[in-house]
Amino acid sequence: MAPVVLISKGKFKFAIDRGGTFTDVYAECPQGRVVVTKLLSEDPTNYPDAPREGIRRILESETGVEMPADKPLDCGLIDWIRMGTTVATNALLERKGERLALAITAGFKDALHIGNQSRPDIFDLEVKCPDVLHEDVIEVEERVVMQQDKCQIKKNCPVVIGSTKEKLEVWKEIDEEKLRRDLQTLLDKGIRSVAVSLMHAYTYGGHERVVGKIASEMGFTQVSLSSDVMPMVRLVPRGYTACADGYLTPHIKTYIKNFTSGFKGGIDKMKVLFMQSDGGLAPANKFLGSRAILSGPAGGVVGYAMTTYSQKTKLPVIGFDMGGTSTDVSRYAGSYEHVFETTTAGVTIQAPQLDINTVAAGGGSKLFYRAGMFVVGPESAGAHPGPTCYRKGGPLCVTDANLCLGRLLLEYFPKIFGKTEDQPLDMEATQAAFSDLTAEVNKASKEQKGDGYVPKSLEEVAIGFIEVANETMCRPIRALTQSKGYDTSRHVLACFGGAGGQHACSIARSLGMKTVFIHRYCGILSAYGMALADVVHEAQEPCALEYSPENFKYLDERMVNLSNQCIAELQKQGFNRENIETETFLHLRYNKTDCALMCSAVGFPASANSCSHGNFLAAFLDRYNTEFGFTISDRTVLVDDIRVRGIGKSGIAIEQSIAPADSTPAKIKAVKVYFKGGYQMTDVYMLEHLKGGHKLQGPAVIIDKNSTILLEPDCEAEITRNGDVRITIGTGAHSKIGTELDDIQLSIFSHRFMSTAEQMGRILQRTAISTNIKERLDFSCAMFGPDGGLVANAPHIPVHLGAMQETVQFQLRQLGDSLRKGDVILSNHPCAGGSHLPDLTVITPVFYKDVVRPVFFVASRGHHADIGGITPGSMPPHSKSLDEEGAVFRSFKLVVDGVFQEKAVTDALMEPEKFPGSSGTRNLQDNLSDLRAQVAANQKGIRLITELIDIYGLDVVQAYMAHIQANAELAVREMLREIAHKTKERTGTTSLYAEDFMDDGTKIAISIDIDEEKGSAIMDFSGTGYEVYGNCNAPRAVTLSALIYCLRCMVGHDVPLNQGCLAPIKTVIPAGTILTPSDTAAVVGGNVLTSQRIVDVILKAFGVCAASQGCMNNITFGDKDVGYYETVAGGAGAGPGWHGRSGVHTHCTNTRITDPEIVERRYPVIVQRFELNPHSGGVGRWHGGDGVIRELLFRKDLMLSVLTERRVFSPYGLNGGRNGQRGLNLLLREDGRIINLGGKTAVNVLPGDVFRLRTPAGGGYGAADDEGESRLYQQGKDVAAFALKGSVHEYTRRQESA
């Protein structure tokens, strides 16, 4: 079907991208001429609105008619305006939206504050979480619960059918009288926007509609119902989404009103469309806050998808959008890749969004020389003040490095800087700043290396930062592709954004890509994408059915209904039916998993065993196998949502051919540009002068009006017939790197080693089958030197930090020379470096060519849901010996000569059943599958390490392993000197002591003696209590993990987490204590409880902050049919300069909590309350964070287990701050009795019983009237001026909250 062109002749058409730093304008003039312009997004002294100013300048220039900036523009000259804007993202980042209140089911008033209870940065003691969007909250007295066949609580109440066909019981109707009073209170405060999120409203929205009707009648101007905004299961993300809509939509409407007020003649006479986060355009009245977060970046994805992807080769494309403020990475392989839940600026939003991953701060990434390493970002200089060269006093950034290397040419860069906005980039300021930084680098190098050091030139320092920046950006690109089962090298790199062309060749070469494609409008491709985009309207509804023949008719009917809705809406917007297409999707997942995939049936035609819209099951299985490497046989597939995407085809042509070449390309000049090894004379070309078929050999610089393309040596560029640039990447000359320390290579190898550990984790997550590893991401992967010393550990789970080093080194001592190629070791025993038995560690030696002994080791540690023992889950609250906690492996050969020892490991996993009251593993197949996945992850690490050795040589790779460990040691020594200096100033001594107690009275004590001159310390746990007859014994590995965690927190910035961190520390742990238990002692509580107390004691000795809750609050319930485990948040300790965060996990855990709707949907309980326990935090100059109250109502007979601490001894306050409140575990029997369960117990509960958990709060810091405290540790205060987002960021967040 030929597209119908909707463009009118004789008028201007504008496509605009209002970015964080610049606003780009693409205009088609009536005569067919294309004009592009770029201006600063924020320049209040010269114009109020950048997009309108861009339009004014082009209209004035092209018509020759003067149009004063303060007069409205004639919209009769304009056919359409299409715009992407950061107005929603900025309002979210800066919290400058509409004043908003939240109406939520009673008992959940703090649900959005608590969120999923994880903290965004595990090493930030301050626990900085973004504020919620609502400033007030009202609790709606109402309750709807899922009907359950096995529920033993009988109520005489109405039963309703939800939109998912699920039955629900209305336990409490809305108290409308109270609701009106509460809403009036909000109105009296001046609040006119309200978001409504009630329990289970995704399927039954009746109560929300009642609230919405009353609110509208009372005068609220914006009412956002979660059941309308995005009817997807899970209260908290749906509540965030409704809040984002209520918070941002009025703000967007105000912006649109202000924008359109600058036009005369009636804005309705021209088409104004806005880009949505999903890559489709929407009219102004349909442009909603929750769908506007990625408005600008989405245009770039559409731009490269429409111009770079080839239907002939079908080679997938990586989009690399590097601007001034952020760098975005995405992927296109013939269809747009969407995600349906992302977190931006701390707000989790459920809405279709293109999977755009913000991975760095772009040209504005700040440059640091820190503890002997070159560091790029993540902090950003933003648009204000911008890089040093922007003439606003900003810091050195990536843009400055490119400028001083000659890669940006002053005369061709827009002259928009300085007070008069007509100055060029400031080369002198950049060179002066780099001169100072070079002096700092050389001074530090001389101190470290002595007389043998060779000073670096300014250019060597600058190109070093460029190399580190490129490697920083390569890591997430690898993660984006490999996490989904794709080979990174088999992609085309589509480079755009103002800064992208300067880095394209280097990044493609590092990733093994052969082709770079740069569109002729690469500097404004996001704006160009707006011009090419289609108008989109989506309809979606929840579902809860199996994908099975008996439900196909219903699913087809709903897809037809939703398609008709989309078609009708697009027809209202002026599209003819022949220009409308629809795409249908089912959101599918395996039963008993949380990993849902949004599947289209394109390419999977309907069959007798499928819906008439296509074979969605086949599509699901194909995609699942691609992403995860396997499918699960004999497991039902569930439909979570039905979605239809309606597309109104714009029909805008993208082919604009240029004249073919009839002569050799004409260079305009030659300049000196610095590449690795020195300056090279480099030809400069103007892109507009080049013709189709011209070929250029690198090095060369290609100048466009809005971007600069650097063609590196050994690369070739060809100009296509459309005027685009296609670059073929050469192999490049490989410069020999020696074993001596080089600061630049140190940073690059640090990224490479960490990337190895990260990619191992991706393989493990892809190929594992259990929920714990695949979905909760409760695992760590690491690489080690030939001595077993930790080199890189990623991602970071606090209780795993450094612990695997003990395990690897134990195997070296135990097995020595008996290790052979093809062997893989399994271990979990506490005496062998284990943390607790469910954490199984798989270790593989890395052999290289003819070297007899292992040259490295790789290992992966994963939490297995069950390995036997006296209780399901292998975490018994009352265990007294290790045998009761499950299967034990000390030095077990899991693979021998490349053969997986399935029978032997099965026998070992079933071994616990020989002990009275114990069982063998209850999940054998999951255990075996996950162990195989761990072996596969290790093999990936071996391949990556071997490739690294092939490139650089074994001596170089092992040398930089040692250099990186030495660098971590240097960072910790600097921190210890700083701590010693401040401690001596404060107390007159560098000797520290602290003690605290477990609830059974066992003391944990530490004495610390710091040598200020050497930057070393002795940490002595002498005085700590004996091993206990219980399970709170903590293996040595747990203590070392806690120590590394505390050191990293106090350093305050990223350092390689490896054995070097502990080199300046002599750790003394006397034998026979709770921290060095015997081989047979129970330890499950040591990993989840004692670890927290160790951290409390260390931080208390250093005096950096008050105690946090000091507990993980381990709660388990179940019977023979069902089992559930959770850990629950509490209060964070206050510190010098900050209040403790309330309702958050702290220190050694960061586990997310299951959403209350999921809990009630899957388990026989009702979550009655989950809110903060007000005023429970310790009072002080800085208050401790509050704990939480969580109530579970049981609907049938179950066994409840609790494993908790801080029920006797309160979390301490510091420096005059008061203690936080202790926790309390209560059982409210249905007969009225209230029973204190104590800290550790297992009890049978009956239908109608309620478990009330009060978690401990954080201690206060400083006396209440003390204003004079200062920080005692160097917590970084810079906050990145860009919002991390996308599936890669979500993966990292999930990993760090495992």
From TrEMBL:
Pfam families (alphabetical): Hydant_A_C, Hydant_A_N, Hydantoinase_A, Hydantoinase_B
InterPro entries hit by this protein: ACX-like_C, Hydant_A_N, Hydantoinase_A, Hydantoinase_B, Oxoprolinase-like
Domain (Acetophenone carboxylase-like C-terminal): residue spans on this chain: 553-717
Hydantoinase A/oxoprolinase domain sequence ranges: 238-538
Superkingdom of origin organism: Eukaryota
Domain Hydantoinase/oxoprolinase N-terminal, residue spans: 13-219
Domain (Hydantoinase B/oxoprolinase) ranges: 742-1263
Family membership: Belongs to the oxoprolinase family.
Protein's UniProt name: 5-oxoprolinase-like
Organism: Priapulus caudatus
